[in-house]
Design brief:
This is Cytosolic Fe-S cluster assembly factor NUBP1 homolog. This protein has 319 residues and is an alpha/beta fold. Helices cover 36% and strands 17% of the residues. The strands form three sheets. Strands 5-6-2-7-1-8-9-12 form an eight-stranded mixed beta sheet, with helices on both faces. A two-stranded antiparallel ribbon has the order 3-4.
Length: 319
């Protein structure tokens, strides 16, 4: 972080500070959610959206960012599976998923509600309910077709994220899982900024066992530490392949450097468990079906429940 006077919390590295003549105009300002305000010179301070988000999410007990660093590790799938498992764990718990992967929203399909529409009232957008105690919000509900491409620059994506965080009427929630795109760029800076005063519980990081995925996950862990996001733990997805015929296990992505468990030991972050690669999970997600409820005796379901138990404990430690 830059040491300039007036630097906002969670600002990008090398931020010139809100009092600088180059505020909002320097190359380091590109993509920062505070850029337009700093450049205008009208407000020398944090984005007022931060307070709007804090107020909107004050009745959400656990706010969890789901991060990956790398695409293709099954982050959205794991988000959906965990949300269903948490909701099934206790029918009195209210659980929600916020899909902020603006360019590739997948939660409407994975959760089986892609034909639903979002309604707006005086209190804001109403999320779409998957079950009595599980709801979801995604830009996918706002598109005229599932084939529509979102071709937006950073500031417009940041504005959409701000709307999602400050204008969705979640009501009282026990868990809000925020499904993010891969990387450590615009969307992640926006989220860390807008949630900086909203008592963010922490980040859940998803990876696969091979070193090429772990390289990017290490960067995600470094990002969390630089912007002061608590790391709830790491989940290793696709750790082994479950044959749908004989149920035997085999490694598809060899853990040549020890996998996620070894990485967590090296970096001193919690390891929450491993999930197998089961073709039935992919089929259920494509069809919007509830894998956890339909296949309660599956080894994958048991692994999901173990991860949820560890995640709940990690959230309690944060409180």
């Amino acid at each position: 972080m830059a040491s300039s006077v007036g630097t906002p919390n969670n600002a990008p590295e090398h931020c010139p500070g809100t009092q600088s003549e180059s505020a909002g105009k320097a190359s380091a300002c590109a993509g920062c959610p505070n850029q337009q305000i700093c450049a205008s010179g009208e407000v020398k301070g944090p984005d007022p959206g931060i307070e709007l988000v804090r107020e909107r999410l004050k009745d959400v007990d656990n706010k969890i960012l789901v991060l990956s660093g790398k695409g293709g590790v099954g982050k959205s799938t794991v988000t959906a599976l965990l949300s269903r498992a948490i909701a099934m764990r206790n029918c009195d718990l209210n659980v929600a998923v916020l899909d902020v992967d603006i360019c590739g929203p997948s939660q409407p399909r994975v959760l089986g509600v892609m034909d639903e529409q979002v309604h707006q009232s005086g209190s804001g957008w109403s999320p779409v309910f998957v079950d009595d105690n599980l709801s979801v919000m995604s830009i996918g509900f706002l598109l005229s077709s599932v084939d529509d491409a979102i071709i937006w620059r950073g500031p417009k994506k940041n504005g959409m994220i701000r709307q999602f965080l400050s204008e969705v009427d979640w009501g009282k929630l026990d868990y809000l899982l925020i499904d993010t795109p891969p990387g450590t760029s615009d969307e992640h800076l926006s989220l860390s900024t807008y949630l900086s005063q909203a008592d963010l519980t922490g980040a859940l990081i998803i990876t696969t066992p091979q070193e090429i995925a772990l390289l990017d996950v290490r960067k995600e862990i470094d990002f969390c530490r630089k912007v002061n996001i608590n790391i709830l733990g790491v989940v290793e997805n696709m750790s082994v392949f479950v044959c749908p015929c004989c149920k035997s296990l085999s490694e598809i992505f060899p853990a040549t450097t020890g996998g996620a468990k070894q990485m967590c030991m090296d970096l001193d972050v919690p390891f929450l468990g491993s999930l197998p690669l089961d073709p039935l999970i992919a089929r259920c997600c494509d069809e919007g079906r509830d894998f956890v409820n339909e296949l309660p005796d599956s080894p994958a379901t048991k692994s999901i429940i173990d991860v949820v138990n560890n995640l709940v404990q990690s959230c309690k430690k944060k409180q």
